[in-house]
């Protein structure tokens, strides 16, 4: 064996060892982490620089390093699955290396890059499929595909660059020593890249982990804020027997109307939340007015009509910091709270909007709110029968209420049992 060939074998030995040590873990499920290291990078480098014997040498050396590292758990079941995974990766890599190596001859550096990219990508996909087969109990690769693609591009760029540099280096007068020096240069470059690869990816994983923890904390705060607001709205009702459960019933009717009209599930969720919070602004109304028995005076009614604006301002102050709800979704909820007392003829409050000026969700909520108000007892009147309340809605369609929402409510009255199932499903979500 010449010094040139020996230098290649000797230089790859510490490289494959460092490649094994340079590893990261991807979470594949609740209990299993998938170990990814630099073996594929070194194996493919061996194929480009050496020959089949060098590739077999690198595979055997890596497998031996793995066995030594797992010597405390040397059982057939423990060794078989990883060995099968390594063998499948090396086999597929060799096949696609042979199939794509011609690209380098025709397209130079670009062809080399394309060959390495295709080979590494196919090997990574194969590894994923084989691992799924070997661990059939694991269902998901959480973020693994995206991170694996990032690694593929990084390794492809580096390996193609090193190969191109190796081909461009002059041989000199002593070809053998020049080859050895060239190999040392490439070895140092590859070792430096592997160390950099480990450090950069580890830092990225730490960043992703920290970001995930922050997002989880933010989500918990979002849920807590929504629960606090809902609790505020419900606390108002528990102090008054006449309005107890009003917000939940309005949310129920709003969801049923929207469902009957064909709105999608994400819209139903917003309507449900808007219904629960539609009267949250009554927190700012004096108790002497809010719980007064009998009809309100004109001045008291003027104060009462401010509750939509109070509620909208309150929600904007809280929802400004919520990341679980998009800005468009927030605006839809604000619209329900602010405009659910507007009328189609422009005689509602607080702004006297009419027809299409009123947001669709608020038009739906106006029907739901009015129906529950009419069918509930008040201090100044008895509850209407549902048939009477529906007749009132029908008579007010086009002037006070949005006709499509009224028509949906009338249809609901004919199929209440089936639509109640929709509400139960929404409440469970």
How would you characterize this protein structure?
- The structure is a single chain.
- By secondary structure, this protein is mainly alpha-helical.
- The chain folds into two domains: 3-216, no CATH class; 239-428, Hypothetical protein af1432.
- The chain contains 17 helices and two strands.
- It has helices spanning 3-21, 39-49, 52-69, 76-100, 102-134, 144-168, 175-238, 246-260, 265-277, 287-290, 298-304, 307-319, 327-339, 360-374, 386-396, 403-414, 416-428; strands at residues 24-27, 33-36.
- A two-stranded antiparallel sheet has the order 1-2.
- α5 (102-134) packs antiparallel against α6 and α14 (360-374) packs antiparallel against α15.
- The protein is elongated.
- The termini are far apart.
- Mean pLDDT is 76; it is low at 422-429.
The first-to-last residue Cα distance is 71 Å
Mean pLDDT: 76
Order of helices and strands: HEEHHHHHHHHHHHHHHHH
What percent of residues adopt helix (DSSP H or I)? over 70%
In DSSP terms (H or I, runs of 4 or more residues), the helix count works out at 17
Using only C-alpha atoms, the radius of gyration works out to: 35 Å
**How does the major sheet shape up?**
2 strands, antiparallel
Indicate the low-confidence ranges by residue numbers. Answer: 422-429
The number of domains: 2
Overall form? elongated
Structural class: mainly alpha
| Percentage of β-strand residues | under 5%
The count of β-strands is: 2
The quaternary state of the protein chains shown equals: single chain
Strand order of the largest sheet: 1-2
Keywords: Membrane, Transmembrane, Transmembrane helix
Domain HD: 243-374
Domain HD-GYP: 221-425
Pfam families: HD_5
């Amino acid at each position: 064996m010449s010094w040139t060939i020996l230098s290649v074998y000797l230089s790859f030995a510490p490289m494959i060892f460092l490649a094994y040590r340079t590893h990261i873990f991807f979470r594949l499920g609740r209990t299993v982490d998938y170990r990814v290291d630099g073996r594929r990078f070194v194996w493919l480098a061996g194929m480009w620089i050496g020959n089949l014997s060098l590739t077999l040498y690198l595979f055997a050396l890596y497998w031996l390093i793995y066995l030594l590292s797992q010597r405390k758990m040397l059982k057939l079941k423990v060794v078989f699955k990883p060995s099968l995974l390594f063998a499948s990766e090396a086999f597929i890599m060799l096949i696609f290396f042979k199939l794509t190596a011609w690209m380098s001859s025709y397209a130079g550096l670009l062809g080399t890059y394309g060959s390495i990219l295709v080979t590494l990508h196919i090997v990574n996909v194969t590894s994923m499929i084989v691992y799924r087969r070997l661990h059939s109990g694991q269902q998901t690769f959480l973020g693994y595909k995206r991170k694996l693609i990032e690694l593929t591009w990084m390794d492809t760029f580096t390996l193609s660059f090193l190969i191109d540099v190796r081909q461009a280096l002059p041989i000199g007068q002593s070809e053998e020593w020049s080859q050895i020096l060239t190999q040392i240069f490439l070895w140092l470059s590859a070792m430096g890249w592997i160390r950099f690869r480990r450090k950069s990816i580890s830092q990225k994983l730490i960043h992703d982990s920290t970001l995930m923890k922050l997002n989880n904390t933010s989500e918990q705060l979002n849920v807590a804020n929504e629960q606090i607001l809902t609790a505020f709205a419900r606390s108002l009702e528990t102090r008054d027997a006449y309005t107890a459960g009003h917000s939940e019933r309005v949310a129920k009717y709003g969801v049923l109307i929207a469902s009957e009209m064909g709105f999608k599930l994400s819209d139903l969720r917003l309507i449900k939340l808007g219904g629960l919070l539609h009267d949250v602004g009554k927190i700012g109304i004096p108790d002497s007015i809010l719980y007064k028995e009998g009809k309100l005076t004109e001045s008291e009614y003027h104060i009462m009509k401010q509750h939509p604006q109070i509620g909208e301002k309150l929600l904007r102050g809280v929802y400004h910091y919520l990341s679980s709800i998009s800005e468009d979704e927030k605006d839809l909820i604000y619209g329900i709270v602010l405009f659910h007392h507007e009328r189609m003829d422009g005689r509602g409050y607080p702004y006297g909007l009419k027809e299409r000026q009123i947001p669709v969700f608020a038009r739906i909520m106006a029907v739901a709110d009015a129906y529950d108000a009419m069918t509930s007892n008040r201090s100044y009147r008895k509850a209407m029968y549902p048939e009477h309340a529906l007749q009132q809605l029908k008579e007010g369609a086009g002037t006070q209420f949005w006709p499509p929402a009224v028509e949906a409510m009338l249809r609901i009255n004919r199929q209440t049992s089936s639509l109640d199932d929709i509400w139960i499903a929404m409440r469970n979500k």
